[in-house]
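New to this. Explain these tokens.
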Amino acid sequence: MSTDDSSTPSDGRAEPDAEEPSSDGDEKCFVIAPIDSPGSDARKRTNGILNEAIRPVVEEEYGYKVTASHEIAETGSIPQQVITRLLSAEIVVADLTERNPNVMYELAVRHATGLPIIPIDNEDGSLPFDVATERTIPYENAIHGPTQLKNSLREAVDEIEERHEPDNPIYRAQKNEDMRDAIGGYVRSKVEGEEGEKLGNLIEQMMDRLEELESRTRLHDPAISGDDSDLDQTIVLRDAPMRVVPLINRSSSMKADLVGRTEKGANVRLQYPSDMSEDEALDMYVDHLKYLEE
């Protein structure tokens, strides 16, 4: 929701489109996306996705009133109104295209609530580390793009309505912290004195280490593999099994990174050296898939 357009108001927000006004608490689905200034490419793309995919599915088929951040018509603090909707909407759709800083901030606010969120993305580039392992719906700016996005949105809303269990980086971190404290406290209560304190501290340290290792397996950490400056060729593999990423990084001359989750697995960015052809890289990838199937 950021813009460097000269017509942007002093609060840093682009002016709202002339849409039908909505009142506080009315909407049930809130959309956050890059919007820039009226008439910009970002605004046109966002309005296109809203009107061709999100509203036809989420509002017309499922009955959730859809409001986007640039359609807020009330007077007052726009950032406060955005945060109010992030905290109260039953569903939030977050378009991560362009990696807009305001959208990323608003994504974090929504994550903190533990309420349902549907991330979508129009780019093949790698997502930031913190959200790259989260299930994200890819879409294309093409004739068939809205149709594919509509089908994926239906699946996402069905899943939310059937059974929503919070699952995002903030929720997992808090859950792990609660478990760590609970187990450490339990040990201290059962083993008296200094020995119990030491044992409780040791268990908490072990759980911290396990959390660190888990985060590194969820998304490849470049610190593990060292310098990868010679890996100057890149291809993106769609719907790959997530298990293949650590296998490639451990046992080949290539590097694999998760770009984002898909319905069937994950989009994986595969980097390989210049002395290797794309066919050779794909053959090596297939060999890793066969190994997983054995």
About this structure: The radius of gyration is 22 Å.
